[in-house]
Amino acid sequence: LALEPDAPLFLFSEKALIARTKRYLKHFPGDVSYAVKCNPTEPVLKALGALDVKTFDVASIQEIELVSAAVPGATLHYHNPVKSRREIDKANKQFGCRRFAVDCVEEIDKLHAVIGGDPEVELAVRFVLPRDRSWSSHDFSTKFGAPEHECAGLLQHAQSLGYKVLLTFHPGSQVHDTSVYVRHIEAAARIAEAAQIKITRLNVGGGFPANYLLQTAPEPEAFFTAIDESVKKTFDGAAPKLECEPGRGLVADCMSLLTRVKLVAAEDVFLNDGVYGGLLEFLQMPELRPPTRVWRGGKRLISPSKSYKVFGPTCDPIDELPHRIDLPEDLRDEDYVEFGQAGAYGYACMTNFNGYGGHRIIAVDEVLSL
Predict the structure, then answer these.
(1) Which residues of the chain fall below pLDDT 70?
(2) For residues 251 and 255, what is the distance between their CA atoms, to the nearest angstrom?
(3) Are 34 and 41 contacting, i.e. CB atoms less than 8 angstroms apart?
(4) How far is Cα 155 from Cα 75, in angstroms, rounded to an integer?
């Protein structure tokens, strides 16, 4: 705040990221990778690399380049199930990627045409279950994932071409029920049995939740225990080695978004950032309501509050938060509004629409979180 920034910026607490990541590394019963799409910033990637997170779930060549620069020697899991031939070739030959996700025979055959039958390459067959709407806040089942009855054939086909094979799934973003992972693990066992293939690895994806004002998430250890117990029970002594690839669960509370008030007009507040910037996710999933606090003159503003409608800076009527926010009733121009829990998808989803954007990242000791 001593900088008195006029443009929005992200505040980054490495201490918060370290604390959260250590819990995953200590308690998850397998290997922990990081889903880069959630927050692809250099400070986050470097901090994770320093913590000995050496495997990264990437979805594009651009993400591969970011990780390779920030964490030299990192292991890359190209878990976007759809890749162009040039992307496959570049990932494999230039960056040494040896893991690719697939969910259809066409993608398997395309990979084989590009890289051949390399026995060091792993193909992760991604499966999907019919989704219960209550599982998660964001559905990942509509675009990717083969239905269970097709997956045995995909495993067999990939193995016949000389590849190592494994299974992977993603239960959705912000999962709040540990049984969701249990159902998917049971399905993985059925697929492996139908294929008559012993899978040595199972990737349980991400989906581990963070806390928001309207959603209190179970602790990550509750999910880890359910996953561990289910794998041991379901695979009956021949449990595959586990992997997970959290995004939100690791980084949500390590960043907050600092915005500045441009105008207060009765019960309407106009900020210098909005849904075309760091607040996009809160438009897409309004139930993930972030905590807020207000700063004036370097001090937190404590006063009676009232409800405001909050708009971003662009000339687009869509640029409005989907819910009203309680802010100090004496809020005024040039105050700062800090939105907590902005580490997940805040920076990743920004645009420069109408010329707004350019969010810097400032290192701080602590950020607003729940």
Answers:
(1) 1-2, 132-142
(2) 7
(3) no
(4) 23
DSSP assignment of 280-296, as one string? HHHHH-TTSPPPEEEEE
On the CB side of 131, CA atoms within 13 Å amount to 22
Task: Determine the pLDDT at residue 118.
Answer: 93
- Interacting residues of 26 by C-beta distance below 8 A, sequence separation 6+: none
Contacts of residue 344, defined as CB under 8 A and 6 or more positions apart, other chains included, come to 38, 39, 210, 247, 248, 251, 252, 281
- Enter the tokens of residue 224: 């880890």
Find all residues with CB under 8 Å of 286, minimum gap 6, and list them: 322, 323
The answer to whether 37 and 78 are in contact (CB under 8 A) is: no
* 64-118 pLDDT per residue, tens: 999 999 999 999 999 999 999 999 999 999 999 999 999 999 999 999 999 999 9
55's enclosing H/E stretch is strand 55-58
* Nearest partner of 261 among 231, 215, 294, judged by Cα: 294
Distance from C-alpha of 14 to C-alpha of 47, rounded to nearest angstrom: 7
DSSP assigned state of 28: S
The Cα diameter of the chain in Å comes to 69
Q: In whole angstroms, what is the distance from residue 103 CA to residue 112 CA? A: 14
- Asked if residue 9 lies in contact with residue 359, where contact means CB atoms within 8 angstroms, the answer is yes
Confidence (pLDDT) at 137: 47
3-state secondary structure 331-347: CCCCCEEEECCCCCCCC
With pLDDT > 70 as the criterion, what percentage of the chain qualifies? 96
- Nearest of 36, 40, 44 to residue 13 by alpha carbon: 44
**End-to-end Cα distance, the chain:** 21
Predicted pLDDT of residue 131: 72
Left if phi > 0, otherwise alpha if psi is -120 to 50, otherwise beta: which for 207? left
Supply φ then ψ for residue 329, to 5 degrees.
-70, -20
pLDDT tens by residue, 30-39: 999 999 999 9
Element (H, E) at 126: strand 122-128
State both tokens at 205.
């994806």
Q: Are 253 and 245 contacting, i.e. CB atoms less than 8 angstroms apart?
A: no
